[in-house]
Amino acid sequence: MKELVKTLVTEFDDKEYAHAYMEEFSNMAIAAQIKVLREQRGWTQKELADASGMKQERICALEDIDYDAWTIKTLRKLSKAFDLTVKLSFEAFSSGILDAVKINAKTLERTSRQEDLDKFSCDDFGAKEILWSEPVTTTQPSIYLVQTNHMAVNDIKYFEHRQTA
Amino acid sequence: MQTTPKFTLYDYLNKNGNNEFKEWTKKLQKIERAKLNVRLDMLSSQGFGLFPVILTGTPTAGISKLRVKGKVQLRPMLCKGPINNEHEFTLLIGATERDSKFAPRNADEKANDRKKIIIETPNRRCPHERVS
Questions:
Q1: Sheet strand arrangement including B64-66
Q2: Hey, is A136 helix, strand or coil?
Q3: How far is B110 from chain A (nearest CA, A)?
Q4: Cβ separation of A32 and B54 shorter than 8 Å?
Q5: B102-111 pLDDT tens trace
Q6: Residues in chain A within 8 Å Cβ distance of B54
Q7: Which pLDDT score, from 0 to 100, does residue A125 have?
Q8: pLDDT tier at A135 (50, 70, 90 boundaries)?
Q9: DSSP H/E element including A128
């Protein structure tokens, strides 16, 4: 898949193309993730609809990869139903390219709050997950490269490091 | 962790050896090409697993259309295989859809004709040539 990464890096030299590609990918990915999360919990569309206060037809539409009218309000309703938090952030295109190349059902699954927090506590609050103990030198705020055990879409996550020294 | 493509994509070649699908793609607007390439990338890497409705059927059995939403509804037509049905898709014809009608007309039937040609003459296709 390195070839696809290289291809996308070259193609994304064109701003209009890059934005169109990532917008389409994002729409497909969020629709796919809703379906993956629902199935991970063994729910029907009706059960998700009930849990999120929406109609089953609406869930069906949201799971359609052609859907492109996302609102934060809708995503928050779903996140509450799944007992997850919505992470909204602006990302670099390199991060988007990696998301596109690595996407699969496993990378989209997420553990619900209680189970996740229990595991997080058992794992010493994520202390073992830090791969690089030294901040990366950058003109911007320092960052750590962290890999989670949960195979997130962005399984390479950048955390702002607050230097206390 | 990067995933290995599940499917290899091929393009139909006409009797002169020209890649008509590539020529069709070249005529698309840049944004349409970007959307088309996302769908093809996902089809290649995921098949139907993650995006079960990425392909939908046509009136012709064995011929599917890739749905690309936009100002113009792109409906490139393809088939599984037809040489190796487990690991390949072959793009047969570029098409659009408006009011439930394909352009070119009977694109699904033309795609099926091309599929038959490839089954008889496997060298009437080439690895998919991406246009960005």
A1: B55-57, B64-66, B77-80, B88-93, B8-12, B125-127
A2: strand
A3: 26
A4: no
A5: 999 999 999 9
A6: 65
A7: 84
A8: low
A9: none
**Contact, A34 vs A63, CB < 8 A?**
yes
Whether the per-residue pLDDT at B93 is higher than 90: the answer is yes
| CA-to-CA dists, residue B74 to B31, B83, B92, B96, angstroms | 12, 25, 14, 4
Position A18, amino acid: A
Domains of chain A (ranges; CATH) run 1-110 (1.10.260.40), 111-165 (no CATH)
Which among B41, B49, B132 is the nearest to A100, CB-wise? B41
Q: String of b and e for B57-87 (b: at least 16 CB within 10 Å)?
A: ebebeebbbbbbbbeebbbbbbbbbbeeeee
B31/A16 CB distance under 8 A: yes
Average pLDDT for A6-14: 97
Dist CA B48 CA A144 (whole Å): 36
pTM of the model: 0.84
pLDDT at residue A137 greater than cutoff 90:
no
Q: A76 by DSSP, 3-state: which?
A: helix
Which residues in chain A have their CB less than 8 angstroms from residue B49's CB? Answer: 104-105
Of A24, A36, A108, the CB nearest to B34: A24
Residue A153's pLDDT is what?
A: 39
Q: Which residues does chain A have within 8 Å of residue B35's beta carbon, measured at their own beta carbons? A: 20-21, 24
- As a whole number of angstroms, the distance between CA A132 and CA A146 comes to 7
Chain B positions in Cβ-Cβ contact with residue A103 (cut-off 8 Å) = 3, 42, 45-46, 50
Distance of CA B36 to the CA centre of its chain: 10
> CB A148: neighbour CB atoms within 10 A?
13
Q: Distance between the two ends of chain B, CA-based, in angstroms? A: 25
Tokens of B132: 């960005």
